[in-house]
Amino acid sequence: MSDTSEGTGGLSYDKSKRQWPNELNVLAALILIIVIFEILGAIFMQQSLLFDSRDRFDSIFNEARLRIIIIQVAIIGIIAIGVTQVIITAGIDLSSGSVVGATAMIAMSFAQVAEVSGNPNPKAIFGDWALDLPVIIPVLVGLGVGLTAGAINGLLVAYSRIPPFIATLGMMLFARGVAQWWSLGNPVSFPTDAYAVIGSGMNPVFIFLGLALLFHFIMNYTVYGKHTYAIGSNEAAARMSGINVPRHLMLVYMIAGALAGLAAVILTSKNLTAQSGMGLSYELEAIAMAVIGGVSLFGGRGSIIGTVIGALIIGVITSGFTFLRLGAFYQEMVLGMIIVGAVALDQWQQKRAAARS
Amino acid sequence: MSEYILETKGLTKHYGGVHALVDANFTLERGEHVAIMGDNGAGKSTFVRQITGVEQRTRGDVIFDGAPVNFAGPLDAREAGIETVFQTLALADHLNVPDNLFLGREKTKFNWLGPFRLLDYKSMREDTMAGLVKTGVKIPNIKNSIANMSGGQRQCVAIARTATFASKLTIMDEPTAALGVQETAQVENIIRTLKEQGESLILVSHNMRQVFELVDRIIVFRRGRMVANLRKEDTNGEDVVSYITGAKTGAEFEGAA
Predict the structure, then answer these.
(1) A222, B141: Cβ pair inside 8 Å?
(2) CB-based burial of residue B233 (10 Å sphere; 0-12 exposed, 13-18 middle, 19+ buried)?
(3) Residue with the larger pLDDT of the pair B79 and A202
(4) Is residue A264 a part of any domain in this protein?
(5) Beta carbons of B141 and A301 less than 8 Å apart
(6) What confidence category does residue B143 fall into, taking pLDDT thresholds of 50, 70 and 90?
(7) Taking the model in full, what pTM does it have?
(8) B113 — contact with chain A (CB < 8 Å)?
(9) Any CB–CB contact under 8 A between B54 and chain A?
């Protein structure tokens, strides 16, 4: 039986029936986009986007640009890892941007130093007891706030049967309100040195890629991942198979919330300040990364790897437009078209696959 | 060991004021294949749902494998050994064959990881192959997602669960209602294989030919009541139709409907 472990009943394994992983399509799109920018760069800028065309460096890549590309998508990419899981359950999370805002304010309030160049911290939110705390406390507070927001989303979606769009829209408005109420619109600044390390340099990238690896593994090799796909694919079947669907959805939304909370910690650490407007429209960028990466809004399909490539596509486009010295407005127009195009292409492929079988 | 694998006594289900199932007294011997027939709304599916724990009965007893049971949900019934192939295919399109077979009862390693415990893919794949071979189900590549399979193959996958989990009783609710001729034949062959292997089966079907070819006994429901209990040898299609339509009522069920 070991020879025929792919099929049964005397039917031979048919290579043409093998499924083409969708991630390869997304990767092809990324390469295509890079090639387009390279050509445009060669024509208009006499420069290469990603490859090093200067003599004084040995490396073949333009490392500075690569670093910028991945740093600028890392923080939203962390949110996108959670959003991907929510979308795979056929849900949506519109609240992550605002949760970043609220978490940024609250977590930062526990990360402040007591003294700024010899004087008491002018932005201190709480009294002395909350100043110069060990770094683990603001981190835990950040994760806790995100987790709580996610848990409320999960409760509303899983147990009250409120559609995910509405439940998380409510949380989006609520959390933004919390962010503005927390210090009445004032920024919270001056974190401890230890806190500032979290988001410094390439740390956001390492955290993003580490989490992507972790969740890639979880989604593919654990019961959690299998049930996440099953619920998005056919919720009724999942329920009939004995999966505790509400409990699982709770967990998915809580993970998404915690990841948004973590993103807020990294963002405030990187910027050394928290403002109530932080994370604005991050939820849409995270959703865009997932959708461009091949995650189906109808649930059941998509992967963390796809989302990571989707994030890189957005990074390359943003960077490429700057490189070509084109205004940010063109960038947004093109991104908008790419998102719609990605979904349209996906729909067309699905239809073709359905017609073939 | 009781001679019956399943017995119901006075099984009744009311939906508000609607008496969907009234006093059903049903028995099924080990290894026996029984068909349940009846018009739409006669109580066939309601009967199945009470046995499989999908719904909670209003009153009556269900005795499975010699002991009274109260299943809180379909998973309880499944754990006790009742496999159900639902009218609407309970399959997740985007998952492959082993994933669907083991959905909700995955084989796992490192169980202390809770929801993040690892899937034992190798073992599940081996069991799936064994189950498919046992039932004679033909699938070109079990690693493909169910979405790319024909209706017949999908139904076969649903049925193959039974063989994979060595169940004591299989219930099929109109397994061929949505299938073509060839696919129906394929499913019927699997049912014959199950019979040879001594698997007990309840088959809910509208298809008279199928019923007469596959089962030992026919139960007819009408307006929520059992109105006939016929050995296949003692009856014919016309006879069954007259029970279904109400032209006739079984002697032991007089006054019931």
Answers:
(1) no
(2) exposed
(3) A202
(4) yes
(5) no
(6) confident
(7) 0.87
(8) yes
(9) yes
CA distances from A263 to A55, A240, A290 (A): 38, 36, 16
pLDDT in tens, A282-306: 999 999 999 999 999 999 999 999 9
Asked whether residue A32 is domain-assigned, the answer is no
What CA–CA distance (Å, rounded) separates B153 from B182? Answer: 11
Q: Which residues contact B172 (CB under 8 A, 6 or more apart)?
A: B84, B85, B159, B191, B201, B202, B203, B204, B205
Q: Is residue A201 part of a domain?
A: yes
Residue A47 DSSP class: S
In the block, which residue shows the tokens 């640009």? Answer: A65
User: CATH number, domain at B48?
Assistant: 3.40.50.300
- Calculate mean pLDDT across residues B204-222: 92
Q: Which residues does residue A61 pair with via DSSP β-bridges, in sequence order?
A: A51
Least confident of A53-57, B16-20, B23-27: A53-57
Residue of B nearest to A15 (CA): B141
* B49 part of contact set with chain A, CB < 8 Å: no
Distance CA A40, CA B236 (A): 79
Asked if the Cβ–Cβ distance from A301 to B94 is below 8 Å, we say yes
pLDDT per residue over A219-249, tens digit each? 999 999 999 999 999 998 898 888 999 999 9
Expressed as residue numbers, the domain containing A307 is: 61-345
Nearest to B119 among A12, A226, A241 (CB): A226
CB A255 within 8 A of CB A225: no
Range of the domain at B61: 4-253
Q: How far apart are the first and last CA of chain B?
A: 34
**Are β-strands B200-204 and B169-173 bridged in parallel, bridged antiparallel, or unpaired?**
parallel
Q: In this structure, is residue A288 part of a structural domain?
A: yes
Taking CA–CA distances from A300, the nearest residue in chain B reads B94
* Cβ-proximal residues to B216 (8 Å cutoff; 6+ apart), any chain: B32, B33, B34, B231, B232
What value of ipTM does the predicted structure carry? 0.80
Q: Do A230 and B99 touch (CB under 8 A)?
A: yes
Interface contact flag, A7 B141, Cβ < 8 Å? yes
Domain count, chain B: 1
Give me the DSSP letters along B159-217. Answer: HHHHHHTT-SEEEEESTTTT--HHHHHHHHHHHHHHHHTT-EEEEE-S-HHHHHHH-SE
In the predicted model, what is the mean pLDDT of chain A?
A: 89
Distance CA A50, CA A36 (A): 12
Q: Tens digits of per-residue pLDDT, B165-181?
A: 768 899 988 888 878 88
Which residues 196-235 of B have a C-beta within 8 angstroms of A? none
Q: Between B151-164 and B181-196, two packed helices, what is the crossing angle to 10 degrees? A: 10
Nearest Cα of chain A lies from the Cα of B183 at a distance, in angstroms, of 14
Q: At what angle do helices A245-271 and A223-233 cross, to 10 degrees?
A: 110
Would you say A253 and A139 are in contact if contact means Cβ atoms under 8 Å apart? Answer: no
Question: Total structural domains in chain A?
Answer: 1
Mutation for testing the B interface, residue in A3, A8, A253 having most B CBs under 10 Å: A8
- Nearest chain B residue (CA) to A245: B104
CA distance A58 to B243: 89
- CB contact, 8 Å: B180 with chain A? no
